[in-house]
Amino acid sequence: GENVEQHPSTLSVQEGDSAVIKCTYSDSASNYFPWYKQELGKRPQLIIDIRSNVGEKKDQRIAVTLNKTAKHFSLHITETQPEDSAVYFCAASISGDNAGNMLTFGGGTRLMVKP
Amino acid sequence: ETGVTQTPRHLVMGMTNKKSLKCEQHLGHNAMYWYKQSAKKPLELMFVYNFKEQTENNSVPSRFSPECPNSSHLFLHLHTLQPEDSALYLCASSLNWPGLPDTQYFGPGTRLTVL
Q: What is d(CA B16, CA B18) in angstroms, rounded to the nearest whole number?
């Protein structure tokens, strides 16, 4: 089955700096890669996702890059703010096979943005 | 925030009790999921239902019994649990249809403590 590794497990940055979180996956058939943000005591919420037919996607301060050959994808947050502090999870799945979208999650990265 | 709801939000039970967790989605989705989130492990997929049919049981012990009476409701019946089953149980749903986005949306979770 799919295995997703996520690094680092904790990341501390100064407000205004950039943060990068990296994930690798094992199943070359995976074609859908979402990123979720989970604030303390709250549900995971999708912040951005990418499909295997594109290499990069950007939404304001957040961007995700995908390297299918190397089987890794990364989350980039620019101009970090204290409200970006949360746990971020990457995930991978084979999407669109009518059997349900079975996400395999990485171990999570606790991001702390210091004011 | 009201697209996927879960009840109860907190549950304390003894090892001999029987209880049920409930999930309801108001998004018109056709796939529903149960996840377990514990302090030391990433989000673990437990069960997947697609159009009310169970399509995945991720080697979950039989003391967890899912039920999906329709595409909007999902239950997790619990009996003779162990203290190590204490965790946050998250429900999610997605629209699983070829060619359409299949993002998973999470409920707020049930914080379960087994004494």
A: 7
Residue of A nearest to B29 (CA): A100
Q: What is the pLDDT of residues B20-57, one digit of tens each?
A: 999 999 999 999 999 999 987 779 999 999 877 777 77
Is residue A107 within 8 A of residue A38, CB to CB? The reply is no
Dump pLDDT digits (tens) for A97-109: 555 578 899 999 9
B98 in contact with chain A, both atoms CB, cutoff 8 A: yes
Q: Establish if B91 touches chain A: CB-CB under 8 angstroms.
A: no
Q: Which uninterrupted H or E stretch holds A40?
A: none
The SS3 of residue A82 is helix
Chain B partners of A105 at a C-beta cutoff of 8 Å?
Answer: 42-44
Q: Given pLDDT bands bounded at 50, 70 and 90, which one contains residue B1?
A: low
From CA A96, how far away is CA B97, in angstroms rounded? 7
Burial class (CB in 10 A: 0-12, 13-18, 19+), A57: middle
Task: Enumerate the residues of chain A whose CB falls inside 8 A of the CB of residue B47.
Answer: none
Any chain B CB within 8 A of the CB of A86?
no
